[in-house]
Amino acid sequence: MREFHEALAEDFNTPEALGILHQIITLLEKQFATNTVSRGSVRHILNQIRSCAEVLGLDLFSFMQGLFIPPEVTGLAQDREKARGRKEWKEADRLRKEISTRGYVVEDTPQGFRLLPKAGA
Question: What pTM was computed for the model?
Answer without folding.
Answer: 0.50
